[in-house]
Structures are given as structure tokens and as C-alpha cells.
Design goal:
With 215 residues, the protein is of the alpha+beta class. The protein is 32% helix and 35% strand. A hairpin with a 4-residue loop joins β9 and β10.
Length: 215
């Protein structure tokens, strides 16, 4: 009986943990410069941003560069359409790899971004050497800002909040492209899938044990 209670407790803990790992919606990007169709495809397939609720009025934008083709995310711009739903100071956390960024990108606005107007103070770029310190393949960068999480996600979904990116050292030619955030992509975190699977397995163990005791 004690073992059954222990397993039941463990199942609940694992399932709760699996829900917590799925932290927020993930969004893709679309190329707006199109200097190279190949490089545009690299950015659109490898780059994404996940919006995480950090609590205490802080929201983290987790920029992820996955895939195998060369590409370095070097500039990040936020446009909140004058709604004032995001505010600085801008912080940098959850860095995976040799990533180093500072607030205030240069240039100060997103070139080639149709109707894109960077909100004052809400931009950042990688430190020198620019490409080496950008978000390269397999790396991540968390950018924290202040705002109401629900409002931010809502505005992201309806286009009131957008993110622009400058990506350099792309593909075989080492050129650059500009991107703007696109629609949401539902991508559950790998850890959530693993934990949920473990929870299901434990439920099966508990059920089998109960059936064995009843025989």
C-alpha cells in the first residue's frame, strides 16, 4: 500500500513538472530582404522565439537557432506599435553557447522591414566580434523585458507586437538577411515530452500492480 501511494505521488509530480516545462508559445520568422532564397530558407527553418512567463512582471523572449546551416543572429528589434506593452531595462539570460549581447542595436531600426518601427530602447545586438558572439547554430539567447504576459502573447498573435532580426554569416556565401516574426508554431519542449512519457509509464506500472494484487 505504501508503494502504491509513493508511485501515485511520483506520477502526480512528474505530470505537473511536464506541464511546467511547456512554458509558452513559439513563433517562427519570415524573411523580408530575400537577398538569397537559400539563406532566406535557412533563417525561416532554423530561427524561432519562445515567449516565457518569468513572473514578477518579467517576460523572456528565448531566441533559438536550431539546424545545421551556418547563420548568426546578430541584431534584435521589438516593435510594439506604440502600445507600450513592453518596457526596458533589457536583460540577457539563458544563454547557450558563446553568445554576448548588449542593449541598443546599430543601426537603430530594422532595415527593409515593411512598416516596422523599432520601439525606443527595445533593441540589442551582439558584441564584437559580431558574428562569433551572435546566436549561432545550436545556441540560444534569452532577452528579458517587463510587461503583462497575457497582453504580450495576445498582441503577438494579432500582429500588434513584432520582432525583427538581422542574421549574418549565412550559408555558403556568408551573406545576411532580415526577418520579421511570423505566426505561432506549437512546439512542445522535448523535456515535456519525456516527462509526460515517464508519467504515462508510471501510471501503467501502478495499474499493473493493482491488477496483480487483485488476482
Amino acid at each position: 500500500m505504501k508503494l502504491e501511494k509513493y508511485i501515485s505521488f511520483l506520477v502526480c509530480a512528474v505530470l505537473i513538472a511536464s506541464l511546467q516545462v511547456i512554458a509558452g508559445p513559439t513563433y517562427s520568422f519570415v524573411c523580408v530582404s530575400n537577398n538569397s532564397a537559400a539563406n532566406a530558407a535557412i533563417g525561416e527553418s532554423q530561427l524561432s522565439v519562445e515567449i516565457l512567463n518569468m513572473g514578477g512582471g518579467q517576460v523572456e523572449f528565448l531566441f533559438i537557432n536550431s539546424g545545421s546551416d551556418p547563420a548568426s543572429l546578430t541584431d534584435i528589434y521589438f516593435d510594439d506599435s506604440g502600445l507600450g506593452i513592453l518596457s526596458a531595462p533589457m536583460g540577457f539570460a539563458d544563454i547557450v553557447g558563446t553568445v554576448s549581447f548588449s542593449q541598443y542595436a546599430k543601426p537603430g531600426d530594422l532595415p527593409g522591414g515593411s512598416s516596422f518601427s523599432t520601439t525606443t530602447g527595445l533593441s540589442a545586438d551582439s558584441d564584437s566580434p559580431v558574428s562569433s558572439n551572435g546566436v549561432n547554430t545550436g545556441e540560444q539567447l534569452g532577452v528579458t523585458l517587463f510587461g503583462k504576459y497575457g497582453s504580450i502573447v495576445d498582441q503577438f498573435d494579432n500582429g500588434g507586437l513584432r520582432i525583427g532580426l538581422h542574421v549574418q554569416a549565412m550559408g555558403t556565401d556568408g551573406e545576411s538577411e532580415w526577418f520579421i516574426s511570423n505566426g505561432p508554431v506549437i512546439v512542445p519542449a522535448p523535456g515535456a515530452i519525456l516527462l509526460a512519457g515517464l508519467g504515462i509509464t508510471l501510471v501503467g506500472v501502478l495499474r499493473n500492480r493493482k491488477n496483480a494484487l487483485q488476482v
